[in-house]
């Protein structure tokens, strides 16, 4: 794989075929950012592989935008280096970094037609006319906006404007695409469609490295190869999406990525057997789940997702706890139950229910498999 | 009677509502339209009270009038161009180059609008006048016979003073327009590879065009009518329309000539004001 050397305006020389196989990695090397005495990014070390979609998620104010803007060149790190491909970009101005960026409010140029918005980057980089025409056409086609080239941004809906913003970023064939809450301004329905379209876009341009900042876990889970969860200016956890969801490394991750029931347990037996399940005690119940090197006597949390709890047992659902039924919310497709187990509320999302629901206040057994269960350490706040 | 306006019944509201046009209209008529009519009347009437367009035509072709007209337009256009350049450069710096205290500077320049125009001219006399600090310093340092810096007593002196006084009138609407420019657009342009100069040209300026037109036409209007600065500098040969009206009316008691020139000056002003309102309307002001 040949990564083209990047010197200012020669991004133009990278043609479409090359970009497919030749994304750049992004490397944060102990990057910290402070506003005065206020440290908003603690030394961050993180690598985004070429062609990877990394979703950076976390609550508002956790430093996601700051990290993204450091890559773009709008925030100067107090320490550390940022590399894109082989280039150390820490000291380069934004216009020499060869990136694409899309933000929440689209930031289209209001006095330019769609086609001129999309051509803007190429013109700025001195591309020749023929190339510009071709790229504008391609980019608009990629986002399904070919019929809107002559419109002004104000003549488009929010979703259409965001497509144009994406086309504008893609037209310069960026080495890395930075997306900061790109769908947050859109309606839920359009947002779902756009998530799918971004996924499709990445299938068409598999070499494109994407840093996707969002506070929406659904977007992250749908799109990302890997997820970095931010908390208070630090990476709380980082890993492949499925792994992070199935085996969250800490309470914060478990609760931020999807819903999770976290029950305090005491480990009775460390990981054993081919599947490496550990055993832990909750009241009278002994429960098995994926381990992280716990030892007998350790106090930890048992994590089980609401949709993995069943009201009926079988030979696979060998974990069993008993709770007191507190609330039932029927929502058509799903029924949400809230129970109390050993003083901890436990949520259940069930698609199928027994013909007769148990009464409120009665004791209800819940079943789940060790494969859906994991032990999660309590957060150590640093 | 004033409380009639807050009554909910439409019938009770309509009659007193009409009445309220009278006081402002009367005041306007007395203070504005009547004098205007008098001036126009004077301009087209000779001493015997007969309508006479001949004098009007004669003045239009007179050397002294044409010179003053050319002077007025030259000074006004040059000063306005200067104001646009100074206002634009200052505005870009104040709005887009982050430096501590930029807000204070912007407010300070704003305060400038409140000051009388001759103040700057007076200060200029102290600084650049023949007995001013600059000339005194240079004469002493190089043992010169005559003051070396003489630009103040020329068209350039007037233009410089007007640029100093009126640049804030461009700066103000520009800063308002700049504050509305989405910083995200500037950043998007920058990421796409645009250098600062291109961003100013293609992203910032298009958003500021109405502000530039509004500020520029206001400057044209104010400089066409400027009297204090021109009089104060008192450059020989630099006669503008307002100065000409003054000298014809007060010094030569040639009232009809003064009124003829005044009518032309008023027409010029109203035209520029129309341009300003048009631009300000586009600006949403
Ligand atoms: N220009 C700034 N000056 C001072 N503090 C800032 C600035 N930008 C962001 N911050 C602070 O940095 C922290 C992280 O902000 P941000 O990166 O925008 O968070 P996120 O995108 O995760 O919501 C917040 O506490 C915010 O108040
Ligand atoms: Mg943010």
Core attributes:
heterodimer, A: 382 residues, alpha+beta, six-stranded mixed sheet, 19 strands, 24% helix, elongated, disordered N terminus, B: 285 residues, mainly alpha, MetI-like fold, 13 helices, globular, binds adenosine-5'-diphosphate, binds magnesium ion
Walk me through what this model shows.
The complex is a heterodimer of chains A (382) and B (285). With 382 residues, chain A is α+β, with helices and mostly antiparallel strands. In chain A, 24% of the residues lie in helices and 34% in strands. Chain A has helices spanning 16-21, 64-72, 114-124, 129-142, 158-171, 188-204, 217-223, 241-246, 251-256, and strands at residues 26-35, 38-48, 53-57, 79-84, 87-88, 99-103, 176-180, 209-214, 226-231, 234-240, 261-272, 277-282, 285-290, 299-304, 319-330, 335-341, 344-350, 363-368, 374-376. In chain A, a hairpin with a 4-residue loop joins strand 15 and strand 16 (335-341). Chain A is elongated and about 75 Å long. Chain B folds into 2 domains: 16-52, no CATH class; 56-284, MetI-like fold, CATH 1.10.3720.10. Chain B is built from 13 helices and no strands. The longest helix of chain B has 34 residues, at 63-96. The radius of gyration of chain B is 24 Å and the shape is globular. Chain A binds chain B through residues 9, 11, 72-74, 93-101, 103, 105, 107-111, 120-121, 124-125, 165, 168-169, 172, 178, and chain B through 182, 184-185, 187-195, 198, 202-203, 206-207. The structure holds adenosine-5'-diphosphate and magnesium ion (MG). Adenosine-5'-diphosphate (ADP) binds at residues 35, 40, 58, 60-66 of chain A.
In short:
The complex is a heterodimer of chains A (382) and B (285). Chain A is an alpha+beta fold.
Question: What string, H for helix and E for strand, traces the elements of chain B in order?
Answer: HHHHHHHHHHHHH
- Give the ligands present: adenosine-5'-diphosphate, magnesium ion
Main beta-sheet strand count, sense and barrel state of chain B: none
Structural class of chain A: alpha+beta
Supply Rg of chain A.
Answer: 24 Å
Task: Supply the number of structural domains of chain B.
Answer: 2
Largest sheet of chain A: 6 strands, mixed
CATH architecture of the largest domain in chain B: Orthogonal Bundle
Name of the CATH first level of the largest domain in chain B: Mainly Alpha
Going across the biggest sheet of chain A, name each strand in turn. 6-7-8-3-9-10
Most residues in contact, chain pair and counts: A-B, 30 and 17 residues
Percentage of residues assigned to helices of chain A? 10-25%
Give unreliable regions of chain A as ranges: 1-21
Helix-strand topology string of chain A: HEEEHEEEHHHEHEHEEHHEEEEEEEEE
The value of Rg of chain B in angstroms is 24 Å
């Amino acid at each position: 794989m040949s990564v083209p050397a990047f010197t200012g305006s020669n991004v133009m020389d990278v043609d479409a075929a090359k970009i497919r196989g030749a994304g750049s990695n992004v490397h944060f090397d102990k990057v910290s950012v402070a506003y005065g005495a206020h440290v908003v990014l603690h030394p961050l070390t993180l690598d985004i592989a070429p062609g990877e979609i990394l979703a950076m998620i976390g609550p508002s104010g956790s430093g996601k935008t700051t990290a993204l803007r450091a890559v773009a060149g709008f925030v100067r790190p107090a320490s550390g280096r940022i590399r894109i491909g082989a280039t150390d970009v820490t000291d380069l101005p934004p216009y020499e970094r060869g990136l694409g960026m899309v933000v929440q409010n689209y930031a289209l140029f209001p006095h330019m037609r769609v086609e001129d918005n999309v051509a803007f980057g190429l013109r700025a980089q001195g591309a020749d006319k023929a190339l510009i025409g071709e790229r504008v056409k391609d980019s608009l086609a990629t986002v399904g906006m070919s019929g809107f080239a002559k419109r002004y941004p104000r003549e488009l809906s929010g979703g259409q404007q965001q497509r144009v913003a994406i086309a504008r970023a893609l037209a310069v064939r960026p080495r890395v695409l930075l997306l900061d809450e790109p769908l947050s301004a859109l309606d839920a329905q359009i947002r779902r469609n756009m998530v799918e379209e971004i996924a499709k876009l990445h299938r068409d341009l598999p070499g494109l490295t994407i840093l996707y900042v969002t506070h929406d876990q659904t977007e992250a889970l749908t799109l990302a190869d890997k997820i970095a969860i931010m908390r208070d200016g630090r990476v709380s956890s980082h890993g492949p999406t499925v792994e992070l969801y199935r085996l969250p490394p800490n309470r914060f991750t478990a609760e931020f990525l999807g819903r999770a029931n976290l029950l305090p347990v005491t480990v009775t037996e460390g990981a054993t057997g081919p599947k490496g399940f550990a055993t832990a005690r909750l009241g009278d119940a002994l429960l098995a789940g994926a381990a992280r090197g716990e030892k007998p006597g350790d106090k930890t949390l048992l994590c089980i997702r609401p949709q993995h709890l069943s009201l009926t047992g079988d030979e696979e659902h060998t974990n069993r706890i008993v709770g007191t039924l507190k609330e039932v919310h029927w929502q058509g497709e799903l029924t949400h139950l809230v129970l109390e187990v050993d003083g901890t509320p436990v949520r259940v999302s069930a698609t199928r229910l027994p013909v007769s629901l148990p009464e409120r206040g009665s004791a209800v057994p819940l079943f789940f498999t060790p494969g859906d269960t994991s032990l999660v350490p309590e957060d150590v706040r640093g | 009677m004033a409380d009639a306006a807050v009554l909910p019944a439409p019938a009770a509201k309509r009659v007193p509502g009409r009445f309220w046009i009278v006081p402002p209209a009367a005041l306007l008529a007395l203070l504005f339209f009547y004098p205007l009519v008098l001036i126009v009347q004077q301009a087209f009437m000779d001493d015997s009270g007969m309508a006479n367009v001949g004098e009007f035509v004669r003045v239009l072709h007179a050397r002294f009038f044409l010179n003053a007209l050319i002077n007025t337009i030259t000074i006004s256009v040059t000063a306005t161009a200067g104001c646009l350049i100074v206002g634009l450069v200052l505005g870009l710096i104040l709005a887009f180059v982050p430096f501590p205290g930029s807000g204070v500077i912007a407010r300070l320049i704003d305060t400038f609008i409140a000051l009388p125009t001759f103040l700057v001219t007076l200060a200029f006399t102290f600084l650049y006048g023949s007995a001013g600090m600059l000339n005194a310093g240079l004469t002493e340092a190089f043992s010169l016979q005559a003051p070396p810096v003489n630009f103040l007593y020329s068209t350039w002196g007037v233009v410089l003073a007007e640029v100093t006084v009126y640049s804030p009138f461009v700066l103000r609407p520009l800063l308002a327009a700049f504050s509305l420019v989405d910083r995200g657009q500037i950043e998007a342009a920058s990421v796409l590879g645009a250098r600062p100069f291109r961003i100013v040209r293609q992203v910032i300026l298009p958003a500021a065009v109405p502000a530039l037109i509004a500020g520029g036409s206001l400057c044209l209007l104010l400089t066409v009518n400027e009297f204090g600065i021109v009089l104060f500098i008192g450059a020989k040969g630099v006669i503008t329309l307002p100065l000409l009206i003054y000298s014809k009316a007060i010094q030569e008691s040639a009232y009809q000539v003064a009124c003829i020139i005044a009518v032309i000056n008023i027409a010029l002003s109203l035209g520029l004001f129309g341009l300003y309102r048009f631009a300000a309307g586009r600006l949403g002001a």
